Amino acid sequence: MSRYLILVPFVIFLALAGLLWMGLSIDPRHVPSPLIGKPAPAFNLPQLYKEGKVSPQDLKGKVWVLNVWASWCVSCRAEHEVVTEFVKKYKVDVLGLNYKDYATEEYGDAAKQWLARYGNPYSKIAVDTDGRVGIDWGVYGVPESFVIDQKGVIRYKFTGPLKTQDVEETLAPLIQRLRAEKVPVEGNKG
Amino acid sequence: MMGNMMINTPFFGFHSHSRLASFMLAMVLLLGILLTGVARAGIEVREFDDPQQEALYNQLMFELRCLVCQNENLAASNADLAKDLRDEVYEMVTVQKLGEKEVKAYLVARYGDFVLYNPPVKKSTWLLWFGPLIMLLTGFVILVWVTKKKRVDNDTALNKAKRDEVRKLLDAEE
Q: Are residues B115 and B130 in the same domain?
């Protein structure tokens, strides 16, 4: 027995090393959203180009994406091309949530200028001037993207700039799966 | 000896100089600490009618995490989101008159337990809360086990073998 006792520190070392190694693969920036599986928080915000308000209710029955962006956000610019391509390729309704762009004087009409320059892939753009809706959606950094199913439930959240790989490997398959869901039947989760 | 003293004299001078320097350094550090204190207190000037609400607000500022700069609480963070969340908490405490539990529940529902500096005890945090205790107990058990075994070895088998060996060596010497 005592012969095996010598292995104890080694086993403890291995366990610790294993834990630490696992820790390396965990991204502390990735905070799992408690909103997944919950109904999308309601809002009724002014639109960027059109008159009238926009609300998640408008898109009920569709699988859609809420993309939180701002003209002052550098990584949104990196993501923008990917979002544009995503919309074009998969015909997805992407609702833009313009986060705190109009909150400060110095930015003025920056959001519109930004879209004029880089193109506008969004079906509608909600303007969240003071970031209160952002808080409601648990936004803690732009860009962020949420996938909402036909019943209006948040099914997925992506934090940070989307890359083509994320679209192809995660978003697109998920959206196709959610579109295939039969809505009125309960308990038909893909 | 005298020569040694002579050589050392300038070093004494240097020594007292460095003492002054370290005193200055300490003062600078102290000032730095005081200044950060001022900066912290000066994030926003809040007015409270109710001292209880003020106490709750201040407590929450220290117990809630800023999600942007993850190792800072709301009181310390300069991030934009932290400011928004401070406004939100201020409103919840003063206008909506919510208690500690309600404010925390509101934020946890949106940002998850991560927003709390003090993680709640539940299944997924069980290891976090009790892991150290388990490790301590394991260590203690191993310690007792090992020392007990050692004592037995020392008293009997090992010593007897050693003694025989020594005797043999001594006998050979003679």
A: no
- The fraction of chain B above a pLDDT of 90, given in percent, is 30
pLDDT digits (tens, 9 = 90+) for A123-158: 999 999 888 999 999 998 889 999 999 999 999 999
Q: Report the gap between the CA of A20 and the closest CA in chain B (Å).
A: 14
CB contact under 8 A, B88 and A137: no
Shared domain check, B140 and B101:
no
Give chain B's domain count. Answer: 2
The shortest CB-CB distance from A135 to any of B85, B108, B146 is to B85
Which among A8, A136, A138 has the least Cβ separation from residue B142?
A8
Query: What confidence score (pLDDT) does residue B152 get?
Result: 64
The range of the structural domain enclosing residue B61 comes to 47-120
Highest mean pLDDT among A119-123, B112-116, B151-155: A119-123
Chain A hits for B142, Cβ within 8 Å: 8
- Same domain, yes or no, for B116 and B128? no
* Cα nearest neighbour of A137 on chain B: B110
HEC readout, chain B: CHHHHHHHHHHHHHHHHHHHHHHHHHHHHHHHHHHHHHHHHCCCCCCCCCHHHHHHHHHHHHHEECCCCCCCECCCCCCHHHHHHHHHHHHHHHCCCCCHHHHHHHHHHHHCHHHECCCCCCHHHHHHHHHHHHHHHHHHHHHHHHHHHHHHHHHCHHHHHHHHHHHHHHHHHC
Q: Is the per-residue pLDDT at B14 higher than 50? A: no
**In angstroms, what separates the C-alpha of A80 from chain B's closest C-alpha?**
22
Instruction: For residue B67, give how far its alpha carbon lies from the nearest alpha carbon of chain A (Å).
Output: 6
Domain annotation covers residue B71: yes
Residues B116 and B130 placed together within one structural domain of the fold: no
- Extract the residue ranges of chain A whose pLDDT is less than 50: 187-190
CATH code for position B72: 1.10.8.640
The answer regarding whether domain A33-180 maps to CATH 1.20.140.10 reads: no
Q: Is the pTM of this model over 0.95?
A: no
Average model confidence (pLDDT) across chain B: 80
**B141 and B94 both lie in a single domain:** no
